[in-house]
Amino acid sequence: MFWKIVGALIVAWLAFMVIGSVVGFLVKALVWVAIIGGAVFLGSAAYGAIKGRKEPKRLP
Question: Is the dihedral of CA 21, 23, 29, 35 positive or negative?
Fold first, then answer.
């Protein structure tokens, strides 16, 4: 009976370790995707502001 409890605890510990590493990897990946996406957004906004029309828009 003792070894069944110890075995179940080891299996549960291994499952938590695997799940934790996968979740940690996904969180890191999402952080990097957000950083890259923000940089691309800021770059495209700056490019659009620089290359925008030189003359102001007029109402017809």
Answer: negative
